Amino acid sequence: MANIKSAKKRIKVIETKTLRNKMIKSALKTYIKKFEAAVEAKNVEEASKAYKTVAVSLDMAASKGVIHKNKAARRKSRLALKLNALSA
């Protein structure tokens, strides 16, 4: 355990940020699962709504630094391909 006051504060700040990151990642995974379930059920309308939610969540996670911006772009691209294949 840290003895220095600033080190103790850093530990508290890191714990807070870790919890926030876990919350964002968990929500992101849930949104992606909902989208993929809609694609699996061949429900175009629900899948397009879910895709919008996922895209916004990915952008938000990338802007907060939870995931890398290129990873967010890659995920959005792959999900968009699934959506386009479903609607085509």
Main sheet?
none
Distance between the termini: 58 Å
Low-confidence stretches: none
The number of helical runs is 3
Count of extended strands: 0
Helix content: over 70%
In one word, what is the shape?
elongated
Strand content: under 5%
What is the radius of gyration? 17 Å
Q: Which class of secondary structure composition applies to the elements?
A: mainly alpha
How do the helices and strands follow one another from N- to C-terminus?
A: HHH
How much is the average pLDDT?
Answer: 96
Report on the structure:
With 88 residues, this protein is an all-alpha fold. It has a domain at 44-88. It is 86% helix and 0% strand. Helix 2 (44-64) runs antiparallel to helix 3. The longest helix has 36 residues, at 5-40. The relative contact order is 0.12.
Keyword list:
about 90 residues, single chain, 3 helices, mainly alpha
Helix/strand layout:
Layout: H1 5-40, H2 44-64, H3 69-87
Helix pairs in contact: 1-2, 2-3
Give a nutshell description of this structure.
This protein has 88 residues and is mainly α.
